[in-house]
Design brief:
It is built from eleven helices and 16 strands. By secondary structure, the protein is α/β, with parallel strands linked by helices. The termini are close together. Bound molecules: NADP nicotinamide-adenine-dinucleotide phosphate. NADP nicotinamide-adenine-dinucleotide phosphate binds next to helix 1, helix 3 and helix 4.
Length: 317
């Protein structure tokens, strides 16, 4: 079968489509014929050897997919750590979910990472059952996780503030329900939050930039606010003067889907809520661009340039 292989570390330019042997299902696995794969920042980091736990190359890329379970013919979407970008993959049964009837494979492939991550961000922030009007600042609001977080925030009745480098992207996220877009190229988001919340701050920040932004996030929260840290897209090690936390009883919480996905109880809890919202037609993966597998390098380059809106998807078969 054809697969997108990382033959050695070195960034997206080293990606190759190769013929590899078909996967075998382990005890808790089932083989899926893959139709589409969702591209994540983690995939980019994996090509560079910068993603924790990556096995030694050669390895097949990709961490989420949609397709057809060969044994049953059922349409499924799934989450894995590697090997999703191939014509077949062995999926963990507990990390496969049914695809809503009206969705394409591309839409389904854009669901698992973004929506589970966004759901867990609200859960970790303690905002699932908070009163309407609770405030959250969502960094990279026009990205994959960001657009998912806006859809969930709208359902929860959260007052959302979101950052992007582009007015055009912010305009599109407003249509999803974002109330306050902040173009960080034009204005300092910490100042904007202060101004827009009349000096009060937000209840939570979804922080995935790293570097100085963790300290800035801590300065954006009000009393007992929570900073949910889940990435470092700037490539800078996260920095935080913890004394800022004392002053407002604030706290920092880590979120890593790779780790949480091993906890079946937690994943089932999240899916119970997400699947209910899916049945009610409230969640819609936002797809920026679809690339054929043979143009995977261009897809990765677009992600690397930070020019994408929503999710980049690879069409596999
Ligand atoms: N911990 C977890 O379990 C988990 C799960 C999923 C994702 N993540 C992390 O969450 C982050 C977003 O993931 P995603 O898939 O939503 O990515 P994405 O859709 O590609 O969003 C990334 C966006 O971040 C913005 N950005 C701002 N500063 C940036 C910088 N210095 N470098 C690159 N991008 C920058 C850009 O949008 P603008 O131009 O609009 O600013 C870019 O398009 C990544 O860091 C990823 O590793 C973590």
């Amino acid at each position: 079968m054809r697969a997108l292989v990382i033959p050695r570390f070195g960034g997206p330019d080293i990606l190759e489509i190769q013929e590899v042997t078909d996967p075998h299902a382990g005890p808790d696995q089932t083989v899926v014929k893959v139709e589409a794969g969702g591209l994540n920042f983690a995939d980019l980091m994996t090509t560079e050897g910068g993603y924790a736990g990556t096995p030694k190359p050669p390895l097949t890329a990709g961490r989420e997919f949609a397709g057809v379970e060969i044994a049953t013919g059922k349409r499924v979407m799934g989450y894995t750590q590697w090997a999703a970008f191939a014509e077949k993959t062995a999926g963990q049964r507990s990390l496969l979910w049914p695809v809503p009837n009206e969705w394409s494979a591309e839409q389904a492939a854009a669901f698992p990472v973004n929506f589970f991550t966004a759901y867990f961000a609200y859960w970790k922030a303690g905002l699932i059952d908070k009163p309407a009007g609770t405030r959250v600042l969502i960094q990279a609001v026009a990205g994959g996780v960001g657009t998912a977080a806006v859809q969930i925030g709208k359902i929860l009745g959260i007052e959302m503030y979101g950052t992007s480098s582009s007015d055009d992207k912010l305009g599109r996220v407003r249509e999803l329900g974002l109330q306050h877009g902040i173009n960080y190229k034009k204005q300092d988001y910490q100042d904007s939050i202060k101004e827009l919340t009349h000096g009060e701050g937000v209840d939570a920040v979804f922080e995935m930039l790293g570097g100085e932004h963790v300290t800035k996030a801590a300065k954006c929260v009000r009393d007992f606010g929570r900073i949910i840290v889940y990435g470092a897209a700037t490539g800078q090690p996260p920095m935080l003067d913890t004394r800022i936390l004392y002053a407002r009883g604030a706290s920092v919480h880590g979120l890593w889907l790779s780790y949480l996905s091993r906890n079946t109880t937690l994943m089932n809890m999240a899916w119970q809520q997400l699947s209910q919202w899916l049945q009610e037609g409230k969640l819609h993966p936002v797809i920026g661009q679809v690339f054929p597998l043979q143009e995977a390098r261009a897809a990765y380059a677009l992600l690397q340039a930070g020019k994408n809106y929503g999710k980049i998807v690879l069409k596999i078969s």
